[in-house]
Design goal:
It contains 5 helices and 10 strands. By secondary structure, it is α/β, with parallel strands linked by helices. The chain has a domain of 114 residues: Rossmann fold, CATH 3.40.50.300. A 7-stranded mixed β-sheet has the order 4-10-9-5-8-7-6, covered by helices on one side. Strands 1-2-3 form a 3-stranded antiparallel β-sheet, with no helix packed on it. Helix 2 crosses helix 3. The chain is globular, with a radius of gyration of 17 Å. The two termini are 13 Å apart.
Length: 202
């Protein structure tokens, strides 16, 4: 099912591997690595998981591809979802967030709220609560800005530098980690997505 959904979105050139992980006799993760040609004729590998505890591994080759990945996730986002993003400075978290906002239908410019901590965008099909907690020293500081009102609100919450407040996230949080791959190219990013709900595909 997941493979068919991906096939409708992209032109598949090769399935490179299929990995099934088992725990206590139960399949908990199916990872399908697919290679296809993007707009710039370079390859992109996508891991596709069926269950919420599955992990997807994605390579993007440019800012445009990172933006597009965010846009696709934003198009499928549901009310109440929380996305925790991690990654080094300049790895592309804000680029992904801009794409995510575009997928929600938000047209206003999106910038990282480093000094204000949180910014609300309400111009799309769902509100986007965008946090940048880079300057948060203790998770307790989040109480001062009433974070729970947004985390458990009707919109979608996206948090950059989420590792700094890791204890505040509920178990069903979607986790995205973005890493540079300088050996492969200056704009190449290795992106890991965990906890994506069943029915959402990228």
């Amino acid at each position: 099912m997941c493979l068919l959904l991906l096939y409708n979105m992209i032109t598949v050139s090769k399935v490179t591997s299929v990995l099934c992980l088992h725990k206590s006799g139960r399949v908990i993760d199916v990872l399908i690595m697919i290679q296809y040609c993007g707009q710039d004729d370079r390859s992109l590998e996508i891991g596709c998981g069926k269950w919420r505890d599955a992990q997807m591994n994605i390579r993007t080759n440019s800012e445009e591809e990172t933006f597009e990945l965010g846009r696709k996730m934003g198009m499928q986002a549901r009310p109440g979802e929380i996305i925790a993003m991690t990654g080094d400075l300049g790895c592309g978290k804000t680029v992904f967030t801009k794409g995510f906002a575009k997928g929600l239908g938000i047209e206003e410019p999106v910038t990282s709220p480093t000094f204000t901590i949180m910014q609300v965008y309400e111009g799309g099909r769902l509100p986007l609560y965008h946090f940048d907690v880079y300057r948060i020293e203790e998770p307790e500081e989040m109480e001062e800005i009433g974070y729970s009102e947004y985390f458990f609100g009707e919109g979608v919450t996206l948090v950059e530098w989420a590792g700094l407040i890791g204890e505040l996230f509920p178990g069903d949080t979607i986790r995205i980690d973005i890493r540079k791959n300088c050996k492969a190219g200056d704009d190449v990013r290795e992106i890991t997505v965990e906890g994506l709900p069943e029915g959402e595909n990228i």
